Amino acid sequence: MAMITATFPGGAVVNANFSGFEVSTDQPEDNGGTNSAPEPYMLFLSSILTCAGFYAQRFCQQRQLSTEGMTMTLDIDRHPESRRLEKVKMAIQLPDGFPDKYQKAIVRAAGMCSVKKAIADPPEFEVITE
User: Fold this and answer.
1) CATH topology for 39-122?
2) N or C: which end of the chain has fewer CB within 10 A?
């Protein structure tokens, strides 16, 4: 994977640049931003859901099961005082006619997400100056 570079165009905007893409982030107005882009925390949560969604989608594609009407949702529980993330809850809303025999298997497939695995077995973080 290529290195990710952050740039700081002004205000509360921070952009991530990698592999020819630029992802903008901002903060809500009540946190000093202009709400011009998603806040980083929401991108973090979105990455969990879209990664799990990719595995659920691939599961269906490999079995020639329609994903029309299928959606996934993510909700979180946070500690009321520390705001620490305590639980991530994902739900797959299966399309009509989805075979019962695959319901547990698609949940297992969604659980294969590499973003989820990275959180479940967290890496060491290091911040330095250069």
Assistant:
1) GMP Synthetase; Chain A, domain 3 (3.30.300)
2) C
Q: What is the DSSP letter of 124?
A: P
Q: Are 7 and 14 in contact (CB under 8 A)?
A: yes
Query: How many Å apart are CA 76 and CA 112, to the nearest integer?
Result: 19
Given a contact cutoff of 8 angstroms between Cβ atoms, the answer to whether 31 and 17 are in contact is no
Structural domain spans, the chain? 1-38, 39-122
Q: What is the pLDDT of residues 69-99, one digit of tens each?
A: 999 999 999 999 999 999 999 999 999 999 9
Query: What pTM does this model have?
Result: 0.90
45: exposed, middle or buried (Cβ count in 10 Å: 0-12, 13-18, 19+): middle
Q: How far is 121 from 12, CA to CA, in rounded Å? A: 31
